[in-house]
Design a protein that fits this description.
Blueprint (H helix, E strand, L loop, with lengths): L7 E5 L2 E4 L2 E3 L3 E3 L4 E2 L16 H6 L3 E5 L10 H9 L3 E5 L1 H14 L5 E5 L4
Parallel strand pairs: 6-7, 6-8
Antiparallel strand pairs: 1-2, 2-3, 4-5, 4-8
Protein backbone atom coordinates (compact mmCIF):
# COMPACT_ATOMS: atom_id res chain seq x y z
CA UNK A 1 0.00 0.00 0.00
CA UNK A 2 1.43 3.36 -1.03
CA UNK A 3 1.62 6.13 1.53
CA UNK A 4 1.16 9.77 0.59
CA UNK A 5 3.89 12.28 1.22
CA UNK A 6 2.81 14.96 -1.28
CA UNK A 7 2.26 18.13 0.69
CA UNK A 8 -0.06 20.91 -0.41
CA UNK A 9 1.86 24.17 -0.22
CA UNK A 10 -0.95 26.66 -0.85
CA UNK A 11 -4.66 26.84 -1.69
CA UNK A 12 -6.76 29.80 -2.76
CA UNK A 13 -9.92 30.06 -4.85
CA UNK A 14 -9.24 28.24 -8.13
CA UNK A 15 -5.56 27.59 -7.42
CA UNK A 16 -3.57 24.97 -5.53
CA UNK A 17 0.16 24.34 -5.23
CA UNK A 18 1.25 20.74 -4.65
CA UNK A 19 4.94 19.88 -4.37
CA UNK A 20 5.80 23.24 -5.94
CA UNK A 21 3.55 22.82 -8.99
CA UNK A 22 0.49 25.02 -9.50
CA UNK A 23 -2.85 23.58 -10.62
CA UNK A 24 -5.94 25.56 -11.61
CA UNK A 25 -8.33 22.65 -12.09
CA UNK A 26 -9.91 20.28 -9.59
CA UNK A 27 -7.44 17.62 -8.52
CA UNK A 28 -7.17 14.19 -6.96
CA UNK A 29 -4.00 13.64 -4.98
CA UNK A 30 -3.10 9.96 -4.97
CA UNK A 31 -0.15 8.62 -2.98
CA UNK A 32 1.95 8.31 -6.14
CA UNK A 33 0.52 10.90 -8.53
CA UNK A 34 -1.78 13.85 -9.07
CA UNK A 35 -4.77 13.74 -11.40
CA UNK A 36 -5.27 17.36 -12.53
CA UNK A 37 -8.27 16.53 -14.72
CA UNK A 38 -10.87 15.47 -12.13
CA UNK A 39 -14.31 16.37 -13.36
CA UNK A 40 -17.66 15.31 -12.00
CA UNK A 41 -20.53 14.33 -14.26
CA UNK A 42 -22.84 16.81 -12.55
CA UNK A 43 -20.33 19.46 -11.50
CA UNK A 44 -21.38 20.36 -7.98
CA UNK A 45 -22.89 16.98 -7.12
CA UNK A 46 -20.38 14.30 -6.15
CA UNK A 47 -21.69 10.96 -7.34
CA UNK A 48 -20.41 7.42 -6.85
CA UNK A 49 -19.24 7.24 -10.48
CA UNK A 50 -17.02 10.29 -9.88
CA UNK A 51 -15.04 8.27 -7.33
CA UNK A 52 -14.54 4.97 -9.20
CA UNK A 53 -10.79 5.47 -9.80
CA UNK A 54 -10.30 6.42 -6.16
CA UNK A 55 -12.24 3.43 -4.85
CA UNK A 56 -10.13 1.04 -6.96
CA UNK A 57 -6.98 2.23 -5.15
CA UNK A 58 -8.58 1.39 -1.77
CA UNK A 59 -7.27 4.24 0.38
CA UNK A 60 -7.71 4.18 4.14
CA UNK A 61 -8.91 7.79 4.16
CA UNK A 62 -10.52 9.98 1.50
CA UNK A 63 -10.45 13.72 2.15
CA UNK A 64 -13.03 15.55 0.03
CA UNK A 65 -12.82 19.30 -0.49
CA UNK A 66 -16.23 20.70 -1.40
CA UNK A 67 -15.00 24.01 -2.77
CA UNK A 68 -14.00 27.41 -1.47
CA UNK A 69 -17.56 28.12 -0.30
CA UNK A 70 -18.52 24.46 0.09
CA UNK A 71 -20.99 24.36 -2.80
CA UNK A 72 -20.19 20.83 -4.00
CA UNK A 73 -22.78 18.51 -2.47
CA UNK A 74 -21.84 15.01 -1.30
CA UNK A 75 -25.11 13.04 -1.04
CA UNK A 76 -25.70 10.45 1.66
CA UNK A 77 -25.66 7.60 -0.89
CA UNK A 78 -22.15 8.63 -1.96
CA UNK A 79 -20.98 8.84 1.67
CA UNK A 80 -22.54 5.45 2.41
CA UNK A 81 -20.90 3.89 -0.66
CA UNK A 82 -17.47 5.14 0.46
CA UNK A 83 -18.06 3.79 3.97
CA UNK A 84 -19.27 0.42 2.63
CA UNK A 85 -15.93 0.08 0.84
CA UNK A 86 -14.14 0.41 4.19
CA UNK A 87 -12.86 3.91 3.49
CA UNK A 88 -13.09 6.69 6.04
CA UNK A 89 -14.26 9.95 4.46
CA UNK A 90 -13.68 13.47 5.67
CA UNK A 91 -15.78 16.10 3.90
CA UNK A 92 -14.98 19.79 4.38
CA UNK A 93 -14.69 23.05 2.52
CA UNK A 94 -11.52 22.85 0.47
CA UNK A 95 -9.41 25.16 2.66
CA UNK A 96 -10.15 22.98 5.71
CA UNK A 97 -9.68 19.80 3.63
CA UNK A 98 -6.21 21.00 2.59
CA UNK A 99 -5.27 21.52 6.24
CA UNK A 100 -6.70 18.13 7.18
CA UNK A 101 -4.87 16.36 4.35
CA UNK A 102 -1.52 17.96 5.23
CA UNK A 103 -2.00 17.11 8.90
CA UNK A 104 -3.02 13.51 8.22
CA UNK A 105 -0.10 12.69 5.92
CA UNK A 106 2.22 13.91 8.68
CA UNK A 107 0.41 12.37 11.66
CA UNK A 108 -0.71 9.14 9.97
CA UNK A 109 2.14 7.97 7.72
CA UNK A 110 0.85 4.43 8.23
CA UNK A 111 -2.34 5.26 6.29
CA UNK A 112 -3.02 5.58 2.57
CA UNK A 113 -4.69 8.97 2.10
CA UNK A 114 -6.24 10.46 -1.02
CA UNK A 115 -7.61 13.97 -1.43
CA UNK A 116 -10.28 14.90 -4.00
CA UNK A 117 -10.42 18.69 -4.11
CA UNK A 118 -12.87 21.03 -5.82
CA UNK A 119 -11.00 24.33 -6.13
CA UNK A 120 -13.73 26.84 -6.91
CA UNK A 121 -17.26 27.62 -5.69
Amino acid sequence: MLKNSMKIGHYSFGRIVIEGKTYTTDVIIYPDRIDPSWWRKKGHLLQIDDLRDIIVTRPDILVIGTGYSGLMVVPDDTVNFIKAKGIMSIIEKTSAAVDTFNRLITERPDRSIIAALHLTC
